[in-house]
Amino acid sequence: MDRLEGKVAVITGATGGIGQAAARLFAEEGASLALVDLDEGALQEVVRSIGEDRASYTVADVTDPDQSQAYINAAVSRWGGIDVLLANAGIEGTLATIPDYPIDVFDRVIAVNVRGVWLALKYAVPAMRERGGGSIVITSSTAGIGGTPEMSAYNTSKHAVIGLMRTAALEGAPHGIRVNTVNPAPIETRMMRSIEEQRTAAFDDASVTVETTKQSVAERIPLRRYGNPEEVARMMLFLSSDESSFCTGGIYMVDGGRSAGSR
Q1: Domain count, the chain
Q2: Which range marks the domain in which residue 178 is found?
Q3: Crossing angle of helices 103-110/152-172, nearest 10°?
Q4: Which UniProt keywords apply (predicted)?
Q5: pTM listed for this prediction
Q6: For residues 158 and 181, is the Cβ–Cβ distance under 8 A?
Q7: CATH code for position 31
Q8: Where are the beta strands (DSSP E) in the chain?
Q9: Average pLDDT rounded to a whole number, residues 227-250
């Protein structure tokens, strides 16, 4: 359908499961892509799979102001402007109760998941104003609307980006810039494998395996399964395209019904 024909999209966290799915879908729909992550080899592979005529990359730490400004500048230099920002970079941290949670890990999660989004907004919004508007999509989570034991840093960060989104939506509206969050439930990604492994390791019981841990999580989702990255990417595509032209300041769940009932 070429729903993003002629548009330039910046995607952070572009080598993760959701980031890669979004990059490929956006390219199929006509977008030119500026991909951002820390792993240069993985970025090169994603660019090769899409095509250098359609995608470029910048290695950057999204928590660093200079590097954040640099990836925005690189996108503008390579493609002529920015129409879409997918602020998707994020980390899960560790699993521990608040008294036991490592301070350095807490700080790193907040830095990547919140400061990284704030810096993306800070430097992308002026470029989008020059373009006459655009769409910003921030990756939050079902953890952004509820609590999860032993995940204080991640939950805090995903609540925080909803606040950022709401402020940015109000500031951006006069300039034609729309801002929304996408909030996935557990998705088939590396991040969920990490969380499952950490939860499993906490049990001194051979009957508790990564597979049984995953099954117990899936059973709490009304659709009885994890989502896949492509399902999240399709919501991101809708919010990035002109089909969502009257959508801003919203929280869009991709959660198999998890948020509809008790958590």
Answers
A1: 1
A2: 8-187+228-257
A3: 20
A4: Oxidoreductase
A5: 0.95
A6: no
A7: 3.40.50.720
A8: 8-12, 32-37, 55-59, 84-87, 134-139, 177-184, 251-254
A9: 98
